[in-house]
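Friendly challenge for the regulars: who can give me the structure tokens for this chain first? No prize, just bragging rights.
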Amino acid sequence: MCAATGYSGPGQRGVVLVTVLWMLVLLSLMATGISLGGRSFVRQTLNIEQGYRAALAADAGISWALWSLQPGPQGRWLADGSEHELQLGEARVRVALFDESGKLDLNLAPSELLDALLEPAIADSRQRAALVAAIEDWRDSDDLVRLNGAEEAEYLAAGRDKGPANRPFRDLIELAEVLGMNERIYRSIVPSLTLSSGVRTINPQVAPYAVLMALPNASDGVVRSFIEARRSAWDSALPAPPLPFDAAPYVSERGAGRNFTALSEAQLGRWTRVRHGVLIERRASVPRVVRSLLLLDDTAGDDAAAQPGDQQGDGEGGYEQ
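First reply, four minutes later:
Bragging rights claimed.
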């Protein structure tokens, strides 16, 4: 009896060849996936490490600002938001210190100063008046609507699920919830606002540009010259110059030197930027951090484009106080 022998026809050989080719393709895809996954993991690890280093540098900037508030240090800063720069290894750190007495207190600011502060962001006077009235309706304790203002009925009609708080603002971020407020307007005015001064006036010796421009009789050239003069006087240990225009009754130096905001930005390489901010209270000449601020626009890693710092002594970007 003859033994049967296996025979593979052309069709079977073709199936085997196609199967082998598909296996090679799958193995190639698996290898590519593993390689890409490894590179992605390495990149994520480097991003985390970069962010951590930048955060440490930003913390060092906050410590630098606290040092400037200690009794008797040489080179104590004028807390008007002027920028101070420090190089820590590969990190470039920029720090600004603001005396809160130079800002408008959101809970106490007169309507005319709020209107003037909003003018660069809102050209329409009726829109400004409505937003100012809505702010005042938020911070007062009654439910009576002001002319052009907003109480619960207006919020519900606009699709909101609740009305204003009818109490003083507790956080600056609450300002974003006021009817008529949007992100652009919020970002433009929040650097000029505080909840810490406790007075209706502003201290012109530390007020930033935008706040000084909100005062009556202010003009761009005069305000800029005044800011330069007061910084020069501080650096030379000379008496502060008087405000060169009449802004009564909206200015006084009450509350100066007690409450501060410190903002620190660390830039590491091209892509990593970390910003830290704190509220500082100084009592009996001893400064201490009382609260951290939630800052906007922190970036870290290859997926976020670095941007230049936005606190140049005239403002510090949006934050929650």
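The chain has two domains: 12-103+197-321, 111-186. The two ends are 98 Å apart (CA to CA). Your move, everyone else.
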